[in-house]
Amino acid sequence: MSSREECVSIDLEGRSYNIVVGEGSLHAATTFEGLPSAHAALIVSNTTIAPLYAATLRSAIKSRFPVVHEVLLPDGEAYKNWETLQLIFDALLSNACDRKTVLFALGGGVVGDMTGFAAASYMRGVPFVQVPTTLLAQVDSSVGGKTAINHPQGKNMIGAFYQPRLVVCDLATLDSLPLRELSAGLAEVIKYGPIADVDFLDWLESSIEDLMARDRAALAHAVRRSCEIKAWVVSQDEKETGLRAILNFGHTFGHAIEAGMGYGVWLHGEGVAAGMVMAAELSRRLGLVDAAFVERLTALIARAGLPTKGPVLDAADNAGRYLELMRIDKKSEGGEIRFVLIDGPGKAVVRAAPDALVREVIDACCG
Prior knowledge:
Blueprint: E1 6-10, E2 17-22, E3 40-46, H1 50-61, E4 67-73, H2 82-94, E5 102-107, H3 109-121, E6 128-132, H4 135-141, E7 146-151, E8 154-161, E9 166-170, H5 179-190, H6 192-196, H7 198-212, H8 216-236, H9 251-261, H10 268-285, H11 291-303, H12 318-326, E10 338-342, E11 348-352, H13 355-365
Parallel strand pairs: 2-9, 3-4, 3-5, 5-6, 6-9
Antiparallel strand pairs: 1-2, 7-8, 10-11
């Protein structure tokens, strides 16, 4: 690695790997030196990202892989489904790829999740590498081995835990990110403060304008610290049997928003942003935090250009529609919705709440 790169490690014994955070990492063949040797690689990207970065990645890995195939997926959350997943399998099979073939996920969270799921499934498991090009993917979805596709009734409900061999976060790729996508990524950065690191929350409050302006030093710190927190959590609870659930702060409400509005109408980070406000307000009504904390978090989210109110999903019974969708959440047990709540700044807890109280929160926080 160059002096402009840093490395965060995820310790999972035989499945450990590094997250490289830096500038120009995508251009350097040395970034990919530790990968297993194989006859072929497959770059999975989408129609937006591939024209920008696929040739650069191909050049960086060509010395390790004599043959580099490529498959382009349609761009957007609406395509995170079985039909699009089949395009990856079609490319693997039509090119006679074997079980040593390395898949490279070049793009945002949708590309990363689908490539990871394809890698977990093809020939019962082939190696893959995450090359996230969005802020949201760099700080969250590319790290930790969650892979999935959506179902019309629920987000990320069909998938597998399958760890990458390497994650390469080239900060230079964020220069091409639309402002709305940058803000959406900041939602996943912001969540780490309330659940795990109040000092990071303080830093975000003082640095949010720098992040919005894409200051490279600020982005480097935000990506690195986010990855450090997620690595610490995942190393203790790889398959979300306990602690890892705290990383879903805001996601129970947020996933309901995405499914209820139709995938892609609200970006994932936008749903999480409004969901964090709702989860914080539920925490307040349960006596876990005070109103000042809710106001503090809401103000930070707004400064990041993100929504602080959820949409109305059903004019006749909005809260009922939210509850219906949230019962499909992966943290639900026996139909009981379990929420990630803030038990004081920097500390999260997973627990249920009475439907009547949740209805009050939804009514107060949507519209």
